[in-house]
Structure formats: structure tokens, C-alpha cells
Amino acid sequence: MTAVVRTEGLGKRYGRVWALSDCTLDIPAGRVVGLVGPNGAGKTTLLNLAVGMLTPTSGTIEVLGGRPGASPAQLAKVGYVAQSAPSYAGLSVEDHLQLGARLNPGWDDTLARGRIRRLGLDLSHRAGKLSGGQRAQLALTLGVAKRPELLILDEPVASLDPLARREFLQDLMEAVAEQGLSVVLSSHLVSDLERVCDYLIVLVASQVQVAGDIEDLMSTHHRLTGPRRDPARLPGDQRVISASHTDRQSTFLVRTDAPILDPSWNVGHVGLEDLVLAYMGHTTADPPAGPTERPKLEVQR
Amino acid sequence: MIWLTWRQLRTGAVTVAAALAALAAVLALTGPGLAHDYSAAIAACTEPGGACSAVARFFDHNQMAWLAVTAVVLVVPALIGAFWGAPLVSRELEAGTHRLVWSQSVTRTRWLAVKLGVTGLLAMSAAGLCSLAVTWWAGSLDRSGNMARIEPLSFAARGIVPAAYALFAVALGATAGLLIRRPLPAMAVTLVLFAAAQIAMPILVRPHLLTPARSTVAMTEAEVTNFTFGPDHVLRVGASAAPRGAWLLSSHAVDPSGKRVNPITITAASGPCAAPGRPAPAAEGPPAATGPEGDPLVTGCLAELQRLGYRVESTYHPASRFWALQWFEAGTYTAAALGLAGVCFWRIRRVPS
């Protein structure tokens, strides 16, 4: 499978602050990728780097095999709905469709006008007079009607009420199903992404904490509950993401590819939201450095 | 891309076009009458030589209108720079619409090129048409000789230079907007810098676009404009050796060896330059001044100065250089505009979003 976005040690610095650092990713094609992280984690920076709005301070980024924003052909391959869905307040919906048609060689006018009709938007309405949800829909229309291979959406539903949110995401999924797009969308709310994404990237404090297929993530993360124990005494192939203790009991969220063999643990399923929250609390991607390598627990026959 | 630029500029362009049409209508209605009055003044002119009271009256009579239309041409490029140039990029950056337009299949370099190009051309057309209309209308007033059209005030409001000013103003506004990123401060900065450029140009640059002509003539009453006796037996002479309709750059008295002398040291205690019946001005006393004309003292003193070999030297640009200076100045501003556009293209790639 080819990568839609491939980054290598990617970093972006504003003045003396790194908004994104040492980001290495390989996002496969044909996925709906959720990019989550708290506000200010660097999500917008990463997406802006991917569409060529920004240029990296360090490292490299390749989108669909090319340098982002380098040429009209590269721009045509990537659709982008920026944060808060900017539109020209003084121009009408019709003008925006004209803009899309005149600035994109691959413009699908039937698709665009069909969507606008379905959404019930008045063509003569000025974009400045539309509601937040309608503006987001207009921006999404511009994004999909240029027929990109990859659609990038930055917090597309942040300003929408729950109903508009649901409609927008449903609409997005229909477009994805029809066109076979790859999608990357960011949000600070996992619940927005849970329904639509099949790939997850968690970005915290300018660093990628975890990235992977959601099914894989679900099957490799476990909640262990049992008698109180020091995390250093867990087997070496179990990476502790979060730990909490009461007087007698410990709860760990661990990542491991191997099955949990220790019978003293009560092994629980981890929800996507809990998983993301655990990573958000976990501020470094490196495993906690122990004085010695912890032994792995192996099956003895 | 041209469509989008036009769509965004449409309201402003229509407003400017309407204002220009109104101005053109007023000028077209009053222009022929003005030309007629000028011919009548010339015909009524019976006095020999350059001075003619009928023509002078004609100018005085229309001076306010002349100033008004000149001011319009001076102001149009500044307004275009502030209202078209400054918001060109900064409004997009402020509203975030640059993220919308830069993610279409058009590189931002091309986006900027079309925006600057279309806006620049419209600005040049607007200012150029305005200037041509005014140049035609004010032709007779400019010829009447009170204010030569090569002199700074009218030079900047005639011919082709206003078009170049407008192009420069748009580039200046766009650059300010790109660096400041907010429309209102960018507009203010554009106006201030443009005004500064317009003031600096006639003082520092325009005189040197061509080598000034130099002429030295005898010190006669025709050349001398004022004549001041100062303390300590010195005499200050204001004079111009430039021909009519020229733009005078500098003028001073020179001694027989060609050295600049001002003041001229000459004894005012006795001789032709001594005031009869008046004591020689005391060193601490206020300077006594006399006009040059008709005063026997002045006539006598001038004759003495001529006998001693004093002359008047002036540097100036003659009226015939009007168009050469126009082209050189237009070229200078166009080059500056291209330089600023270069800054914009360099900067646009580094704009953080």
C-alpha cells in the first residue's frame, strides 16, 4: 500500500517554540485518519505542512509522492478545508462555485451543484450570511468537488452544534464512499472521530504519541486491573501508557502485541476515548527509562 | 484567477469608474469655455513682452479650479494604493481566506501575480485617464505661465507620471499588507510612505534625472527679483537666470571668476550702492530692503555690480524637458514598483498561515 502522507523527522518552529517536532509518520492510502490531540498540540501545524501552507523547519514531508503545494498538479490532488472553514464573506455561494470551477482543472460542477441543492443552500446568498454549519458544508463542497485524492479537514466540526456535526460527518462519509478518497481530519474530541475514522494519530505537545490502525490499536491495548504492583515489575514487552493505584489495587493501560499471560490480572477492553485520554496524559513517546531492561514473560513448556 | 481578482475588485473599480466619469463630465463641460477665455485673454493682451495682465487675471480667476483638479490627480494614486493595494493580500490574511484560495489548484505565486497584475493595470488606467483628462483641461492654464507645468506641483499631476505613481502605490500597499498582515495599519502605512516618496522625489531625485541646464547672465533688473542690504556692507541679491516656463533648481550671484558669492560684499557707505540721505546700515541694525524696480538706487547699484563683473548663475530644467522628465520619472516609479513586487513574491512563500 502506498502512503498518502509520509514524514521523516518533520518539525516546525515558530520563533523559539517548536509547534511540531520530530514527527515521523506513514499514513496509508484509502484511510479515514483521525488526528487528535489537545488544543495547541500541533494538529493545525501538521495539516498546514501537509497542504503546503507551511514549509518545514526540519525533516521532510511527502504527500501523494510530491512536495506539498509545490505545483498546480500537486495542489489539485489535495483538498483542504481549513480551520473554521474560511469563505469570502462578500461573495455569494454561486461565486464560490465559480471560484472552484475556475481555479481547479478537475472541478466536478455536477457534484458541487448537486451537493449545494441537496443541502438547500441558496446560490445567491452571501457566504457571510450563512450559518456556521452551512459555511462548513460550502467549504467541504469546494474541497470534494475539486476531486482530490486526499482530503484534509482541520477541525471541520468544531464550530457546529451536535446535529450539524452528525450531518456533516455523514455527508463527508458519503463523499468518501463515492469517491474513494483518503481523508485526514483533526479534532480535539475523540467522539467526533470514533464514528468515521479507521486510523488514528494522537498528537500531544508537538509530538506524535501513537499512530496506527484503530482495530490494531484496540487489539494491542489492554486495561490490567489487579493487586497493587510497581509498573517496573511488568513484563518488558508491555509498554505502560498510564498507571493508577489505590491502596490495594493497580490499574495499568498497557500496549503489547503479545497476549496477557499473567493470571493475576483482570484484563479489560479499552475504549478509543480512554486510549486517547491515556496518551494525552502521557507526555513523551519514549518508554519510561528503567535502570535495567525488564524481563519478558514467556510461555514455558 | 483573473475572474476572481476582478470579482473581488469589482465594487471598488465601479466606484472609481463612476467618480472618473463624473470628473470627466465636469472637465468636458468646462474645458472648452476655459480655452476660449484663454484665447480672449491672449487677444486682449496689448502689453509687449512676457507680462500680460489679462493672462494673469485669467489665471487668478481660475486658480481655485486649477488647484482642485491638480489635487485630484495627486490624491488618486494615494487612494488607490490605500484602498486597492493595502487590502490586496492583508484582507485575505486577516479573514483567513488565503487558506481557501491557496488550496485551490493555483500556486500562491500565480495567485499573487494575477492579483498584482490586474490591480496594477486597473490602477494605472484609472490614474492615467484622470491625469490625461486634467492635462487636457488645464492646458491653457498651464500655458498662461503663472505656474509652469514642469514645476513640482503640476508636474506630478500631468502627463503619464500619475499612472506610474498608481502602479507604485499598489505595489507599496500590497507589500505593506503582506508584511503587516492587517488592512487598516497597512493602509495607514501605505499613505504615509507614499506621501513621503512623493515629497522626497521632487527634492532629492527628480532634479538629477537629467543633468540640469546652467546659465549665467548679466545682473540686470529683469533677472533680479529681490535686493537686500544687510549689515556690514553686504548685499544679498535674489535672481533667476532661468528662461520662462522652466523649473528653477538653484540661483546665485557669481563673481567675475565664476565663484559663488552671496552675500556680495560691497561698500554701502559710499559709491553707487550707498543710500543717499540714509546712513549706512549699522552692523546691529535691521536689514533694510528695497524692491528692484524703478528705484534709481537699485538701477545705479546694479550698474555698479555689472561693472564689477558680478553675474547671475542658475541651474534649471527648461520647459522643453517636460516629457523627458515624465518618462524618466515614470520609469523610476515603475522600477520601484517592480522591486516591491519582487519583495511580495519573495515574502508570499514565507507567509506563515
List key phrases describing it.
heterodimer; A: 301 residues; alpha/beta; Rossmann fold; 2 domains; six-stranded mixed β-sheet; four-stranded antiparallel β-sheet; 9 helices; 13 strands; 29% strand; B: 353 residues; alpha+beta; three-stranded antiparallel β-sheet; 11 helices; 7 strands; 60% helix; 11% strand; elongated
Summarize the structure.
The complex is a heterodimer of chains A (301) and B (353). With 301 residues, chain A is an alpha/beta fold.
Report helical residue fraction of chain A. Answer: 25-40%
Gross CATH architecture of the largest domain in chain A: 3-Layer(aba) Sandwich
Order of helix and strand elements from N to C terminus of chain B: HHHHHHHHHEEEEEEHEH
Gyration radius of chain A (Cα, Å) is: 22 Å
Q: How does the major sheet of chain B shape up?
A: 4 strands, antiparallel
Largest sheet of chain A: 6 strands, mixed
**Oligomeric status:** heterodimer
Return the CATH topology of the largest domain in chain A: Rossmann fold
Query: Under the CATH scheme, which class of the largest domain in chain A?
Result: Alpha Beta
- Spatial separation of the terminal alpha carbons of chain B: 21 Å
**How much of the sequence of chain B is in beta strands?**
5-15%
Mean pLDDT of chain A, rounded to whole units? 87
Task: Give the SSE map.
The complex is a heterodimer of chains A (301) and B (353).
Chain A: E1 3-14, E2 17-28, E3 32-36, H1 43-51, E4 58-63, H2 72-77, E5 78-81, H3 93-103, H4 109-119, H5 132-145, E6 150-153, H6 162-179, E7 182-187, H7 190-194, E8 199-204, E9 207-213, H8 214-220, E10 221-227, E11 239-245, E12 249-255, E13 266-269, H9 272-281
Parallel strand pairs in A: 3-7, 3-8, 5-6, 6-7
Antiparallel strand pairs in A: 1-2, 1-4, 8-9, 10-12, 10-13, 11-12
Helix pairs in contact in A: 4-5, 5-6
Chain B: H1 2-43, H2 53-85, H3 87-95, H4 97-101, H5 108-137, H6 139-143, H7 152-155, H8 161-180, H9 183-205, E1 213-218, E2 224-230, E3 234-239, E4 247-254, E5 264-265, E6 288-290, H10 296-308, E7 311-317, H11 322-348
Antiparallel strand pairs in B: 1-7, 2-3, 2-6, 3-5, 4-7
Helix pairs in contact in B: 1-2, 1-5, 2-5, 2-8, 2-9, 3-8, 3-9, 5-8, 5-11, 8-9, 8-11
